[in-house]
TrEMBL record:
PANTHER family hit by this protein: IRON TRANSPORT SYSTEM ATP-BINDING PROTEIN HI_0361-RELATED, METAL TRANSPORT SYSTEM ATP-BINDING PROTEIN TM_0124-RELATED
Keywords: ATP-binding, Nucleotide-binding, Transport
Native species: Enterococcus saccharolyticus subsp. saccharolyticus ATCC 43076
One Pfam family here: ABC_tran
Matching PROSITE patterns: ABC_TRANSPORTER_1, ABC_TRANSPORTER_2
Name of this chain's protein: ABC transporter domain-containing protein
Single GO MF descriptor: ATP binding
Domain ABC transporter stretches: 2-234
Top-rank taxon: Bacteria
Family, per entry: Belongs to the ABC transporter superfamily.
Length: 243
């Protein structure tokens, strides 16, 4: 069980980006986080994981976040990552093993086997010696998912993982995430495409600085809640927000 209690964060100590957001996810699920631009979706994740200054508390299985951080994997938006960094695909995936290592401890043969197995699952084995800057957006996102695989986290937070990627990569990633859930993991995805909500998610969090709704898709993905988050001008056709 993962509980968020009164999570808040501000841009400058005055203007609230996220305002006292509380909800609980009790069982393994794929949870979508949606809302308009500027709603605080990414900020909420960073605040809840104590990556930025915040107030409130996050607990996992009744334990404070700091005591169970090895159970958490966070993949930020691709735009926040330096693609020019001189690291290969295989080395990038291996970074997921560092939380399990002590200072100066070398990677074992078994560790590298885990890395290679993860790359195989995301269908990126043939690219393992390439520099990350040589990859397409979809390929790189699959590498980041492979990094969470070797970390073996129970709770995975993905910030806009499907922006700017190809349909093949998106399908591969969603299949993996469904397998993660079947293994007992919980995945949170900041998402913007409303047409995929009913296909992708078990639960939904709708934010606009404050929590608009949280719960199963059938209960939360409603016209009333979407208007409350996006405003009266929202136009819904087949579940897609008309930008």
């Amino acid at each position: 069980m993962l509980k968020f209690q009164q999570i808040s964060a501000s841009y400058d100590g005055v203007h609230q980006a996220v305002d006292h957001v509380s909800f609980t996810v009790e069982k393994p699920a794929i949870v979508g986080i949606i809302g308009p631009n500027g709603a605080g979706k990414s900020t909420f994740i960073k605040a809840a994981l104590h990556l930025i200054s915040n107030t409130g508390e996050t607990t996992i299985e009744g334990q404070p976040l700091k005591s169970v951080q090895k159970k958490i994997a966070y993949v930020e938006q691709k735009t926040a990552i330096d693609y020019t960094f001189p690291i290969t695909v295989r080395e990038c995936v291996s970074l997921g093993l560092y939380p399990q290592k002590t200072i100066f401890q070398r990677f074992s043969k078994t560790d590298w086997q885990k890395v290679d197995a993860a790359l195989d699952l995301v269908k990126m084995s043939e690219f393992k010696e390439r520099q990350i800057g040589e990859l397409s957006g979809g390929q790189f996102q699959r590498v980041l998912i492979a990094r969470t695989l070797v970390q073996d986290a129970s709770y995975i937070f993905l910030d806009e993982p499907f922006v700017g990627i190809d349909a093949t990569s998106e399908g591969i990633i969603m299949d993996l995430l469904q397998n993660f859930k079947a293994q007992g993991k919980t995945i949170f995805i900041v998402h913007h495409d409303l047409s995929k909500v009913e296909d992708y998610f078990d639960e939904l969090v709708i934010l606009n600085k404050q929590l608009i709704a949280h719960g199963p898709i059938k209960e939360t993905f409603t016209e009333k809640n979407l208007i409350a988050a996006f405003g009266d001008s929202i136009f819904i056709k087949g579940g897609r927000l008309n930008d």
